[in-house]
Amino acid sequence: MARMSSPDASVPDAPTPSAPSLLVRRWRVGLFSGLYLYQGLVAGFATTALANHFAATGFDAGAVGSFLALVGLPWVLQPLLWGPLLDRAESHPMGARRVWLVRALMGAQASLGVLLILGGRPDPRAVGGVLLLHSLCASLADTATDRMIVASVPEGELGRVSACTRAGFVTGGAVGAALFAWLLPEAGFAAAAGVLLAFTSLLALVCGLVRERPGDALLRKRPPSPRARVGWVRRLADHLRHVTRVSAAFRTREAAGLLALCFGIDFALALFQVPFAVALIRDHGWEADALSRLQAGLALLGGTVGAGLVGLGVDRAGPARALFRLCLACAVAFGLIALMILMGLDARAGPMILGLSSVVPALLYVALLPTVVLASRSGGVSATQFQIFMATMNLGDVAGAGLAGIIDQRVPAALTASGVGAVFLLCAVARRPARC
Q1: 373 and 150 in contact (C-beta within 8 Å)?
Q2: What is the span of the domain harbouring residue 335?
Q3: Does residue 118 lie in a domain region?
Q4: Total number of domains constituting the chain
Q5: Is residue 85 included in any domain, yes or no?
Q6: Residue 223 lies in a domain
Q7: Residue 200: which CATH number?
Q8: How many CB atoms are closer than 10 A to CB 194?
Q9: Which of 133, 137, 167, 285 gets the highest tally of CB atoms within 10 A of its CB?
Q10: Radius of gyration of the chain (CA)
């Protein structure tokens, strides 16, 4: 497996410069945690609080699943849209990757501002359309962030950084889910959208202060580039060469297996999680805000304490062993879920089922991220490689959410949970290291 050649990652830390930059560990951790906190806050609003709010106002699993699929669609297209852009990014006074991060955050905030004009009780399709635009910009920011992680984090620090990014995402998701689950019914959609815009604007502003290198400009327009005068034939040839290098990077059994794992995990989870959450509200009398708060609390527990412990374990045992063991744990968790549903305990044991179906898989992602980063460190196409792995996960999530309503109508919940457990068991067998 290729190792990182970036000089940024050859040393664990550097002397403290005057300006915040990725050369210093605490700024690396702070920036990446803050950017994932931003993503989590929007996700908590959209995929938890708002999805539960729609379910509580009469929309079925199919409508909620379609809304979630629409919001997640740009994340599936990440490699095609943004991977080549970041791989071939030219030098810039603001930093080759940071300039795209800043531009993307500005576009994302402008998109969230549009939510304010949708009214107090907007249609899910209208909200989904606006959040689709936000996801386009946010996915560009995420690509720039991930490219910075690949280029700047030493291998021995990947587990801790993975834990910090996971903790940032789930903390934002927990705060967003709990806060907006209360705000949506109490103050209305417009007020909730205004609070979301205010919080995310503050996060975007703070994250924009960290440079890639101490000497980078905070804000500056790029001078004219010789590349701007390159003809379309040369650009097309460069793009085709890039596609060829990316294709070569995925012509291995290891890469294909990891792609299948990334898709299978999120696809299987969405098939179970979306209908189960809707069923708790629709069939078992749960309040939408109560469900959102519980989901937020479980995510916070797994993404902070749990993610921190798993991150340290990944750095000690290695991503391969940790990923194998956590796949087994997920298989056991969904086996227990299927058993509880068969025993008719799905209503009374709802909190336990939610915990097993969300917390345990969340811990798995802490081990999965370092595995994907290490698989992406080959010359010249790391941004596209990484985003293909991430987009495959998002594709699984979108496909699972889109099919959730159909599966819910035709397949018993216990059988769905058993199938999810079988997927994790297959993943564990496929990822079993030589020595466990």
Answers
A1: yes
A2: 19-217+234-430
A3: yes
A4: 1
A5: yes
A6: no
A7: 1.20.1250.20
A8: 17
A9: 167
A10: 21
pTM reported for the whole predicted model: 0.66
Tens of pLDDT, residue by residue over 213-265, are 888 888 776 655 555 444 545 655 665 666 676 666 666 777 778 888 888 88
In a domain, 134, yes or no: yes
